[in-house]
Amino acid sequence: MNSVIVGTWKLLSFELQKEDGELKYPFGKDAIGYVNYTASGHFSVQYMPKEQDPNNLKGISYFGSYEYNREKDYIIHHVEGSLFPNDEGLDKIRKARFRGKSLKLTCPPMSWGPDEDLIATISFEKQEELPPVRVAF
Question: Residues 12, 67, 128, 16: what is their CA dihedral angle, to the nearest 10 degrees?
């Protein structure tokens, strides 16, 4: 695996763009999450709103193996498990753009509502060390 991708990436934004350029934020403008890529070729993804509504929980969580092609700037997520069972067994291709500690994944158009094909752009910042742990008793 290529070391440029290996590590923990903190979610900065999750945007959906409509054909007319309008942006939508399915998890809010302050969404939280991480994507982790290991040297062994495995990954895990978690995204969710910063504040969850207990009556309307939403988020994305899936994991599996991945392939990264640096020359062609794409990542393929081979989904092994997901909160959405229909995603299991799928290969999700993402355009990958690295700039220093920044990673931007762009997804092909997909339906996020009635008859809408939206392009998701997900931005991350590489984490050099683990964030501090909050302990609650």
Answer: 0
